[in-house]
Each structure stands twice: as structure tokens, then as C-alpha cells.
Amino acid sequence: MSDDVTRVVGERDLDATRFDADDARAALRDVVRTRRFDERALALQRRGWMSGYPPFEGQEAAQVGAAHAMEADDRLFPTYRSNALQIARGVPMSDVLLFRRGFPEYHSDHDVPVFPQAVPIASQIPHAVGAGMAASHRDADRASLVCFGDGATSEGDFHEGLNFAGVFDAPTVFFCENNGWAISLPERRQTASDSIAVKADAYGIEGVQVDGNDPLATRAVVEDALERARDGDPVLVEALTYRQGAHTTADDPSQYREGEPDLPEWRVRDPLDRFVEWCRGQGVVEEGFVERATEAANEELADAVETAESVPRPEPEELFDPVYGELSPELRRQREAARAVVDEHGEETYELER
Ligand SMILES: Cc1ncc(C[n+]2csc(CCOP(=O)(O)OP(=O)(O)O)c2C)c(N)n1
Ligand SMILES: [Mg+2]
Q: Which residues are catalytic, by number?
């Protein structure tokens, strides 16, 4: 494993990268766009529009960089925190909002190959490896990109997934967003290894670290990793980033943030301002670019909320019917009780829930 952390922003000029001005602008536009999504989603949750929301503020650059590195046919395996990645990849904002609003089965007619977002930690990792193996059995030129956090590396599924990928050359990129925290547990308590990337050594695969708050560095590293993976060499990418907000809207970080880890100076906590400044210095964006990107994101969000609100609420029976072939007497009773509440209160039912 290389000890180097790949960095571009604040370290190199655009001319010294594989990217051009359009690439940099596309990255900035999506960082701004997903930041706006996160802010709006938090506000919607605060007024009861959805029951809970896991903010990704601070992680936009890592996710946008990874999204822009993927080819159309690559498979994405997101978590609850990977919504910037999904959006930058082309999943409609309304789909993401609807998942959080309690429509986990809903998806619109888009053509992004994306699996359901995983909430059980690390459970998606073996799935991604399996999909990668299926691709190689079919001689399909595609890879899986599986997202997870620093906390997921303590789960058995992480180790099983990496081991399997190493043994079977499964075309998989393991994309770990090390955001400093697993709920309240700081990264220094998560592992005694020197890094997360170093764990790849144990499975005979490559591990690399990248400044995850740098969208172009992340894109370059993930592009290379996906290319290697498609050739049968899985890669573990550790994107060093930082969770600025709460774990979810049900969390109060003031209870534990005193254990704040010290970060090296280059590891800025926020990717946006530094990237804006760098893009200006490189002559890539003119005055008003960020404002226009923000305005466009606001319009997209207004449409997404309207679309999400137009999708009919599921019937209460849908909570029960897909679970068992035959419901137990107690579940039958609950199913009837749920129907009775909806019949009695109609649309107000959803107000009562809050
Ligand atoms: C199997 C499992 N165990 C525990 C939990 C509870 N849980 C939810 S998020 C979380 C921490 C995950 O931290 P990390 O992997 O770093 O991801 P992050 O939330 O920082 O993106 C835990 C323990 C869970 N969802 N699934
Ligand atoms: Mg984490």
C-alpha cells in the first residue's frame, strides 16, 4: 500500500491533472447542488415532512468525485449517507426524498444502476462483491462500487467481502468514507491499524488513501480503482473526509464532540470553500458561478419536493402483506387495526403520526 494521500486541490494546478475546466466546473456544480439538497432535506425533516434524515454535510466532495469516476454500467451500492453520490450519479432527488419519507420501495423510471441504500452496517459489501463476481462470470465490463463508513470496517461483512473479492478477483471498489465518526465513536477508537486503507494488505488487494474533501483527487483515485477492478484487481479506497453535522436528525453531537479528533492542516473540514477558491485561482469559474449553481439547485429541489408530494401514500396493508405468505393472528389483528385508523382519520392519520 502507498503511504501517500492523493491530493489535487491546494496542491497542484489543474494543468498538472488529467482533468480540464469542464470537469472542475462539473464537480463544483455538483458539490454546490448536493450541499443545497442536504440543507433542504434537513429543513424538511425539521418540519415533519420526513421522520429522520442522515446529513452528509462535509462529505459532498468525496461523493461527487466518486460519482464522476463511475462509468454508466458500473453498479452503485449506497448507504443511508451516500445520497450526494446517488444524486451526482443521476438518481432523481425526488427518489432520494421519497426513500426518507417512508417509500423505500419507490423508484422512478431512471436508468442509473443503483441498489437499495443499506442501513444495516456493511451488509451491502458482500452483495457488491457478488454482483462483481456475476459481472465477471458474464464477461461484462463493469465493476461494483460499494460505499461504507469507517465504522463498517469493524463488521464481519467488511472482512468477508474483501477476502472474497481478493480470492475471486471480483471487480469491486470498496469506497470507505472515513468521516471521523461512527455515530459518537471517533476514528481513533475504531481501529488500531495505521489506517483503514492498510487493511487491504491482509486480503492481498490494493489499498489507497485520498483526500476525500477534494473532488478531483477522489475522482482520479476512484477512476483508477474502477479500471483496475474491471481487470480483476479489487481496490480499497479510503477517502479522508469529515462529518460536519449530526449522525442523523435523532442525534445530538454536542454530547460527544469534545472528543473531536485533531486533523492535519490540509484536511480541511469543509470541502466547498477551498474548492471554490481553487477553481477561481485556476480561472475555471467566473463571478456568479456558485450563485447560479445554487439557484439551479433550488429550482430542482422545488420540483423534486412537488414530485415527491404527488406520489400517493401506500395503503396500510402494504406494511404487512409482503412479509409472510400467511399472517399470524396477531399480525392480522394489527393489519385490521391499521386499516381502521386510516379509515377513521383519513389524511389526518399522517398528522397523528407526528
Ligand atoms: C449491523 C448494524 N449494527 C449497528 C447499527 C447501528 N448503527 C447505525 S449507523 C452506525 C455507525 C456507522 O458508522 P460509519 O460506518 O462510520 O458510517 P457513518 O454513519 O459515519 O456514515 C451504527 C453502529 C446498524 N445500523 N447496523
Ligand atoms: Mg463514519
A: 243, 247, 256
